[in-house]
């Protein structure tokens, strides 16, 4: 019984480490570096300063593709500031509202 508990505990530690997400400051990276980082890591938290409110840090979780979104979410285009541009194209996960009359179901 003790071996089973230790094995379960060990596996949970391994799985929690693999779910760690890296944090970056997008404005200290070029747009190409931001995109390479998302391709390499799959998902990352990008931080940057608001352009409208002084000293307000903003952040978001951006992904390589749909596969890095949670169930009930879809990858949508988004833009964040980078060192060399104000609008670097990335993907963001967004909840799907199936009750929205503008939602088009795939395959129909």
Description:
There is one protein chain. It contains two helices and five strands. The chain has 108 residues and is α+β, with helices and mostly antiparallel strands. It has one domain. It has a five-stranded mixed sheet, covered by helices on one side. Strand 1, helix 2 and strand 2 form a beta-alpha-beta unit. It is globular, with a radius of gyration of 18 Å. The termini are far apart. The relative contact order is 0.16.
Features:
108 residues, alpha+beta, five-stranded mixed sheet, 2 helices, 5 strands, 26% helix, 36% strand
- Rounded radius of gyration (Å): 18 Å
- Give a count of the beta strands, DSSP E runs of length 2 or more: 5
Q: Give the count of helical stretches.
A: 2
Element-by-element helix/strand order: HEHEEEE
**Overall mean confidence score, pLDDT:** 85
The protein's oligomeric status is single chain
Biggest sheet overview: 5 strands, mixed
Structural class: alpha+beta
Main-sheet strand order equals: 1-2-3-5-4
Separation of the first and last Cα atoms: 52 Å
Approximate shape = globular
Number of domains: 1
- Portion of residues within helices: 25-40%
Low-confidence stretches: 13-17
- Percentage of residues in strands: 35-45%
